[in-house]
Amino acid sequence: MRIPSNTFLQLHRADGHLDCTAYGRLLQCCSNGRLLRQGQQLHARLVLHSVIPDNFLASKLINFYAKLNCFPEARRVFDGIQRRNIFSWNALLMGYTVQGRFRDTLRLFSSLLTCESGDLKPDGITVSCALKALSTLSSRSRLARDIHGFVVCRGLDFDIFVMNGLITFYSRCNKLSSARKLFDRIPKRDIVTWNSMIAGYSQSGYYEECKELYREMLGLIELKPDEVTAVSILQACGHSKDLLLGMEVHQLLVNNGVEMDMSLCNALVGFYAKCGSLDYAMELFKDMEEKDEFTYGSVISGYMDEGFVEEGMSIFRQIETPSLSTWNAVISGLTQNNHQEKILDLLCELLASGLEPNPVTLSSILPTCSHLSNLKGVKEIHAFSIKRSYHQNIYVATSIIDAYAKLGLLGRARQVFDRSKDRSLIIWTAIISAYSAHGDVHTALALFSEMLNNRIKPDDVTFTAVLAACAHTGMVAEAWKIYDSLSQNHDIEPTVEHCACMVDAMSRAKRLSEAADFIRKMPIEPSAKVWGALLNGASVSGDVDIGKFACDHLFKIEPENTGNYVIMANLYAQAGRWEEADMIREKMNCIGLKKTAGSSWVESKGALHSFISKDESGDVNEKICTLLGDMLGSTREE
């Protein structure tokens, strides 16, 4: 964009005596055209002719500099205003917010609130900028409450822009009930209001509420869903595997002739991939002229989720320079599919590419290290996370706790927990699970009690960990107390995992009849875990009848699980019922099942070696002896 030549002619003839309105128009032209040099010349002319900008002209200068990301200059103009009004404050607030300088936005907003001038009255624009900053930073909830109170006191709760900002903030802070209350109070909602609430539900995992609100929106006459709505609802459909509704959304987009930009295409690809409709996902993927890291990540994750590891790796290898998020998708997929032996090699590739792992990478790799009993790797990742200040990331800290616990270093796991600043539910659950897995029921229960005293609300996963701790030691009375508190005190419906823990607790306490009766009365269909717990209890107690009762169900649920056949055959053998034992083994042979051989991994000289139980081939024996010699020579106390 160019400034019209007649404006420059007017400027020269005026010899600096243009009024503020004329200067304002010129600055607006420079701002619209991003003409930094010309705008600076205009500013210099103002200084040359000793023109002191009023609030109007100063706001134009601030807008100009902010748009071109020249914030030191914008701030100097702002500081030079003798008597600022709300328009000049808003100019700088909007500049900071539009350019993503949200901490500066909040600092300036706080300064405005403490300003002594009684003439200043923050308006809807002022508050909207502050709320945008708060929503993005997802912090300072106290300031948000103050702003909300300010909005009500000043009567700004009728400003649709302000209310939309509050809904977005509460949604991003996972305070969906507060967001919904505001949404319901707005008499005339615009498209942003609906999209803010729908996006809030979708991003916070409230997929059914998201879809319900979308259906309500479809019934409106004055408003129709747009591309932003579609992205949110497609994400919800993908995560909830609602293929039918997602396809309806896709058809609506096609019928309305909506232009498919990258964000919408990515949402569609991600939706079909998450629903397992990989043919549809790949068709859209191939038709896309431009693809970004999200596109590739969605397809790779889709293949990995369905167990098609090679196909996912093939897509990954097509990318010339994969982004870190794409590497993370592959590593996560390999972990999910138990391809741990490939992950460490992939990590070496990632480092060789010049990229550096982030918290997502670390939390995906740590389970592999613990699975392979690689204590050295866990320690190195822990050290790296401290060096990069990732150790306070809740997911990294949780993964480190879990890894140390699985490697038997419960003391180190506890140290990580004790040093964590953010004691959210996930990290409490991790440390309780660690003590539970080690059979330290008293510490697990003490931590659970401490968590409740800290007003942390447990979820179903936390209760599974606590009940598992009781099950390990056969503490039936304590298990019943916790199980009953699920619905009575915490409004949580018992899950099949909770029921499995209860059966395990009773079985270990040799109260098999009580456990069997519990299963018969279960409000939900018993899973293999439930019947497996009963079978294990029967095996320990030598109760053939209860064992057969459990196995009859297990053979139907998981007919190819060799472990169930082996346990039942051994149970018959222990009871001297050899004929039944042979029948079980014969049944196992008839369907082509074999007992899975155990395997071990050893890391030596930077390479990972795998050994299968009872493999007595000469090459393997020689390899084992060589490795043992190397390891004994370098053994040191950890």
From TrEMBL:
UniProt repeat feature PPR, residue ranges: 190-220, 261-291, 292-322, 323-357, 424-458, 459-494
Q: Which PROSITE patterns match?
A: PPR
Sorted alphabetically, the Gene Ontology cellular component annotations on this record are: mitochondrion
Q: Which UniProt keywords apply?
A: Repeat
Q: Name one GO biological process term.
A: RNA modification
Give the SUPFAM superfamilies listed for this entry. TPR-like
- Family listed: Belongs to the PPR family. PCMP-E subfamily.
The record's listing under NCBIfam families reads: PPR
Q: Per its UniProt record, what PANTHER family does this chain match? A: PENTATRICOPEPTIDE REPEAT-CONTAINING PROTEIN, REPEAT (PPR) SUPERFAMILY PROTEIN, PUTATIVE-RELATED
Q: What protein name is recorded for this chain?
A: Pentatricopeptide repeat-containing protein
